[in-house]
Amino acid sequence: MENNNLGYWVWFLFIGGVIGWLAGLIIRGRGFGIIGDIVIGIVGAMFGGWMARVIGIYPGSSIGAFLVALAGAVVLVGLTRLAVRNV
């Protein structure tokens, strides 16, 4: 499957933004702005995927993958806010 088309990347950034925004709402009640939400969503999704593989969870559906990505973003937001608060 070729992932070099514009539609794929627009969708990838949109989902990253939604995941980051939701993680910001869950942890603190607000997001990080559009760019921050996208970055948190994408990095959090990668972190969530890594965490899921480490503990042996392999989501078999798009909803499962979304939930794993959201969980990773929530953990990432929580750790970021904890680190910033303690600096």
Task: Give structural notes.
- There is one protein chain.
- The protein is mostly helical and 87 residues long.
- Helix content is 79%, strand content 0%.
- The chain has 3 helices and no strands.
- The chain has helices at residues 6-27, 33-55, 62-85.
- The chain is globular and about 40 Å long.
- The mean pLDDT is 81.
In short:
79% of the residues lie in helices and 0% in strands. Helix 1 crosses helix 3 (62-85) and helix 2 crosses helix 3 (62-85).
Number of helical stretches of at least 4 residues: 3
What structural category do the secondary elements indicate?
A: mainly alpha
Helix content: over 70%
Shape: globular
N/C terminus separation? 44 Å
Low-confidence stretches: none
Mean pLDDT: 81
Beta-strand portion reads under 5%
Indicate the multimeric state. single chain
Order of helices and strands: HHH
The biggest sheet amounts to: none
What is the number of beta strands? Answer: 0
Radius of gyration from CA coordinates: 13 Å
